[in-house]
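We modelled the chain as a single entity of 403 amino acids. Its sequence is:
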Amino acid sequence: MSFRYLGAIISKTPPTVTAPVDGEGGSASGAWSISSQANYQALGTWPKPPIPKQIWGWGVNTYGQLGLSNTSSYSSPKQVGALTTWSTVSTGDDFSLAIKSGTLWAWGQGSSGQLGLGNTTGYSSPKQVGALTTWYLIVGGASQTLSIKTDGTLWSWGDNADGQLGLGNITGYSSPKQVGALTTWSYLATKGQVAFAIKTDGTLWSWGNNAYGQLGFSNLTYYSSPKQVGALTTWSKVEVSPIFTLAIKTDGTLWSWGRNNNGQLGLGNITNYSSPKQVGALTTWLLATCAGSYSSLAVKTDGTLWSWGQNASGQLGLGNTTNYSSPKQVGALTAWSKIGGSRYAASAIKTDGTLWAWGSNENGKLGLGNTTYYSSPKQVGVLTTWKAVTKGGLNFTVALKQP
């Protein structure tokens, strides 16, 4: 017998497949059980083989957060090392995190133990966090890190002044600590001193700073351990800023809550809300992200790009610097596939693999070879092999690219 993926034939002895973090690859090792083999034989398909990916970085590099073994800032993309085996990358305020073959790596600012290396030292090149090969998902906040392992357990480390590690205390840790004992965590988001997670049952949980109601509990109380947001089991994605939250349900509806002083909730006003409110009535939202603390970006299922909130630096990409409190379409293209952002800036990848950026260009964080601000999307170089771009670095950007 043979198994196929997109026209290619693989071995008749199927290995165990580990689902990819970004949906564009996977890893395989060992042997399948007879039942699993029979299942895939009936299906006649197998997940795509891993796509090789490099890490590239640009922008401010004061703490070595670009991973280039120096502290020089760059206004155009620079490759981090020579490896092509990275699967996912994330950034905190001044540090970076990445996973390759299940191993976890960190670099940049380490003063709060956010690198997970058992110390408070900063590093300007990637350093492995322990020796485990079971890390699955990684996200960075202001000075804290959260991660999910392949067994569905949740781990955290770094600064914990507001209880953002979810450990039931406000003690900081410089090495990974397990959050509870559950093995059902599937999605993570953290920024500022706020953390959110979704379980495999579709429930939404949050903890940490709640000064503006960004945790979604109809109050302003801080929590140091995960607490469920409502009772719904239909949450699909969640993204956070330090002060507001965006989330998408499985029905494609978009919801927001928290601080709204610049209209970043997209509700047509500047009123704060401490519980989820639906943004319009559409059921076609695919992706959403908080671009800094006061702006929002989203992609619909038709590939159109939308933005709202603060726009002083042109970060909404609308060709002006006007604030908007409800979603506005960025151009007319239907080819946007991934979105990212940093403080007062935004970035996105099209379906053709090109990378685009706009907004504040402090320290060259747009990657355009200059420090000029732009109020509409500008292409970063000419490459068509960009795979992912990070959300959250204050004045720097890290991205994954296929060689």
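As a brief sanity check on the tokenised model: DSSP finds one helix and 32 strands in the chain. Confidence is low (pLDDT under 50) at residues 1-32.
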